[in-house]
């Protein structure tokens, strides 16, 4: 009997003192939800912070820091906040944290693309310690989704002189299920569970993010069972996993909520010419990219919004490769064999960027285009090329939300410092349609406007939309309960239990 009790106790302790091993392909820049504009930073912040509301596994809105909400009229939204939420230092979360976050994000001292969604708000005020009233200037189509922005701690940051350079950005404190324990550049990042997390203490005690900038390194870690969750490239999935791998991991495949694109710096003279952009679009074989790079695990991207949503315009088709027409357009623009179009494409060494760039280089060469490649480490690429806009063209990816908002990328106002419109796209008709959609709460009317935006953007070719890949995720079979969902397999991680038995 005594042996059984000891074994039972050991089994229980092993379940609740485990580590979850994940990977990061790039260094986070700022672990601050207001300033996290790269995927690595966003990946870490989502474990540390909470928003008032979020999406559930079915893509429906659910409360998080709010316990309920109601619209008093078309422009007045009231949140009733939870009164049992603690910051990881033990301080009680309340309405003043929400007010502080709002005032911070609209401050002219903060350069963040997320501020655009808050420009539709006329006031935010605390009705009491756990009730917040939000007044909008007009009915706004994303009145709720705005508050999926994570909340910052007022008591920590209210006396901080410059949030952009604050030490908080690498030593954050949140209300989330995990707390940052260890952070260093190009090294492992360690989080430990928030013991007093308001839902419940996560069953897995630690999360260790291994810095693996190369996909092959991540794959080797998976094969040696040193990662619990990871992603496979189509090549790895098709050719490089065996029965032993499948015995250790469950595999989940679905269309990813992102796309790859080649973006032009539209402030450069050569790319101001729409004939040049169209010629380059016609020189590319997008299906070949899907077949070569993704072994068919993906689809050609036809535009800026997620397939399956009301904003997606199914009437817009991807251009078919036409080398002769591409050459003709280039000749009209002043380029030929004696004077070829030349430009530099910059991209990140992480993920499949360098391979995609090489295929594109080969395809464009058929049309007489000389494209030079510049492949860099992610943070160097972001900080020295993308953010200061020192590029001719970039090869990147973009995440697609469940509810589209074109303003942050496609409105001319978003080309300002800190905005996501770093290619400098400007189209007054698109600007006007975006503003019109912001005040349209009828879903059918909204979708019709966005389908029109979709077509106008693709006709302009500010980006060459390339591929929507499939997401191939693997999870250690010793972890449960795990299930796929519209927002991925990580939707219920605080309930995950890891057993080595």
Q: Which range does the strand content fall in?
A: 15-25%
Number of helices: 16
How is the biggest beta sheet arranged? 5 strands, mixed
Structural class: alpha+beta
Rg over CA atoms, rounded to whole Å, is 24 Å
Globular, elongated, flat, extended or rod-shaped: what is the shape? globular
- In CATH, the topology of the largest domain is named Dipeptide-binding Protein, domain 3
Query: How many discrete structural domains?
Result: 3
Give the CATH class of the largest domain. Alpha Beta
Q: Name the CATH superfamily assignment of the largest domain.
A: Dipeptide-binding Protein, Domain 3
CATH architecture of the largest domain: Roll
Quaternary status of these chains? single chain
